[in-house]
């Protein structure tokens, strides 16, 4: 496993603990469909939450959330639609959150609820 992969996994673990502490139920980790992957899928009440985790060792290339641009959002939306169809969750509310993790800043976590939506 590369350093970048270890860093990413540590970030996902941190966010996983965070969402569980917030009372969400974890449904899936690293769900893959087609060309896409969703890091974490959770249930927040009656809302299915698709969470993209971005871990950055520094901000030389912008914030972690800035890495979730339009193209990445479209892939996440398509992957979420596949998950919804697979699990027959057609009547569920959905939400897309982004979690930024900065381990070199004391493992700072910035959790952005409703980071983007389906147009």
Automatic annotation (TrEMBL):
Gene3D superfamilies: 3.40.1350.10. Belongs to the UPF0102 family. InterPro entries: Restrct_endonuc-II-like, tRNA_endonuc-like_dom_sf, UPF0102_YraN-like. GO terms for molecular function: nucleic acid binding. Pfam families: UPF0102. HAMAP family: UPF0102. This is UPF0102 protein HMPREF3293_02274. It comes from Christensenella minuta.
């Amino acid at each position: 496993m590369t350093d970048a992969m270890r860093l990413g996994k540590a970030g996902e673990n941190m966010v996983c603990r965070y969402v569980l502490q917030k009372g969400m139920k974890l449904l899936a980790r690293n769900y893959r469909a087609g060309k896409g992957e969703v890091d974490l899928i959770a249930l927040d009440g009656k809302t299915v939450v698709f969470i993209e985790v971005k871990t950055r060792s520094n901000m030389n290339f912008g914030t972690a959330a800035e890495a979730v641009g339009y193209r990445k959002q479209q892939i996440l939306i398509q992957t979420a639609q596949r998950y919804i169809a697979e699990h027959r969750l057609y009547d569920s509310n959905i939400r897309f959150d982004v979690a930024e993790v900065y381990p070199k800043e004391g493992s700072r976590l910035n959790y952005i609820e409703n980071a983007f939506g389906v147009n």
